[in-house]
Design goal:
- This protein is of the alpha/beta class.
- It folds into 2 domains: 144 residues, Aspartate Aminotransferase, domain 1 (Alpha-Beta Complex), CATH 3.90.1150; 240 residues, Aspartate Aminotransferase, domain 2 (3-Layer(aba) Sandwich), CATH 3.40.640.
- Helix content is 43%, strand content 13%.
- The strands form 3 sheets. A 7-stranded mixed β-sheet has the order 2-8-7-6-5-3-4, sandwiched between helices. A 3-stranded antiparallel β-sheet has the order 9-10-12. Strands 1-11 form a two-stranded parallel sheet.
- It is globular and about 75 Å long.
- The relative contact order is 0.16.
Length: 393
């Protein structure tokens, strides 16, 4: 069997539709979209068609979509931009303890600039309680930023409920939807968001391109200064090939979201049940129902996550121990700690994330290989040996 790729939460392979849409942008439509000559106008037309497609996929207006370099820039722009643009109104921001580091580190930086941030706890499944959001609001609160779905454990948050609370209190609501777009239906109006971040490479688009939705009338400062691109709000020569590829991939993902979702959920649940039933002392992380269709995150006790990943890689299986952005860190996942896992259990986490390119045969192969790897690693673990001896007493 060919190598099995189950790290789609980190990045996905570009789909043929996106690649085909991009190729003309490197040839016939190579122009600078801000130039006024014919070649530039052709590129501008292509760019604006991509903008309309992205907007339609979100239930937004085309003029509310701003192309960025990816989810990290979109998160930074939304949070810093809203914080500084509304500083005269207040200096308090609300977010959660399980946000992506693009949000958390941005909020931590703003604290050094004099802003105050409330990091809301989550329950054992990684859910933010909307009542906690409302209870945290003060007369100084200017921004709420809660992710749509967690990148590590896959839990889907109650965004619509939080959106209603934000609207009732007239507070700007930003949502990091990087993991959600293309995986679950996203509608900016029904969610009640004022800003929303997304990234093309999470749904089979190219890397280096993302977007920030900014609802008309939302007060947000400029993040990148320079030229007058993106209607004067985001300087830098437009990445026309990236925008076109992302739009094509996004349309494909949204058009097939129900069909693909049902298939992924079936594979996901079979993989989860197979792991939990075949590997003792393992547990599911995240919510079993409110969960991204392709996300599997389990903790396997008495096994080190990195060793598990290396053995899986040798067996031709690509997985992750959590967020790809922190894979070089020896610290346990902040998400797993936030849902109450002790350090030693959090260190034994495994994330397998599926896409429409995965098959039932691949699930079978993982379920065949993984228990044997765990057994061999545990055989070398003094902690597991002590645990088994304690069980026999």
């Amino acid at each position: 069997m060919d190598r099995i790729y189950m790290d789609n939460a980190a990045t996905t392979a570009i789909c043929p539709e996106a690649l085909s849409a991009m190729l003309p942008c490197f040839g016939d439509h190579f122009g600078n979209a801000s130039s006024i000559h014919g070649t530039g106008r052709d590129a501008r037309k292509t760019l604006e068609e991509a903008r309309r497609t992205v907007a339609e996929c979100l239930g937004a207006k085309a003029q509310e979509i701003y192309f960025t370099s990816g989810g990290t820039e979109s998160d930074n722009w939304a949070i810093k931009g809203a914080a500084y643009a509304n500083r005269k109104k207040g200096s308090h921001i609300i977010t959660s303890q399980i946000e992506h580091h693009a949000v958390l580190h941005t909020c931590e930086w703003l604290e050094k600039q004099g802003f105050r941030v409330t990091y809301l706890p989550v329950d054992e499944y990684g859910l933010v309680n909307p009542r906690d959001v409302e209870a945290a609001i003060t007369d100084q609160t200017i921004l709420i930023s809660i992710m749509a779905a967690n990148n590590e454990i896959g839990t889907i948050e109650p965004i619509s409920e939080i959106g209603k609370i934000a609207k009732a209190h007239k507070i700007i609501f930003h949502c990091d939807a990087v993991q959600a777009v293309g995986a679950i239906p996203v509608d900016v109006d029904s969610w009640g968001v004022d800003m929303l971040s997304l990234s093309g490479h999470k749904f089979h688009g190219p890397k280096g391109i993302g977007a920030l939705y900014i609802r008309t009338g939302t007060k947000v400062d400029i993040f990148l200064h320079g030229g007058a691109q993106e209607r004067g709000r985001r300087a830098s020569t437009e990445n026309v090939p990236g925008a076109v590829g992302m739009a094509a991939a996004m349309k494909k993902a949204v058009d097939s979201i129900e069909e693909n979702g049902m298939r992924l959920i079936a594979m996901r649940d079979r993989l989860i049940q197979g792991i939990l039933s075949r590997i003792p002392y393992s547990r599911l992380n995240g919510h079993s129902l409110y969960r991204l269709p392709g996300n599997v995150n389990v903790s396997i006790q008495y096994v080190e996550g990195e060793a598990l990943l290396l053995r899986l890689d040798l067996a031709g299986i690509a997985g992750s121990s959590g967020s790809a952005c922190t894979s070089g860190s020896l610290d346990p996942s902040h998400v797993l700690l936030a849902i109450g896992l002790p350090h030693e259990v959090a260190h034994g986490s495994l994330r397998l994330s599926l896409s429409d390119g995965n098959t039932e045969e691949e699930v079978d192969e993982v379920l065949r290989v993984l228990p044997d790897i765990v057994e061999k690693l545990r055989a070398m673990s003094p902690m597991y040996d002590d645990f088994i001896r304690g069980q026999r007493k």
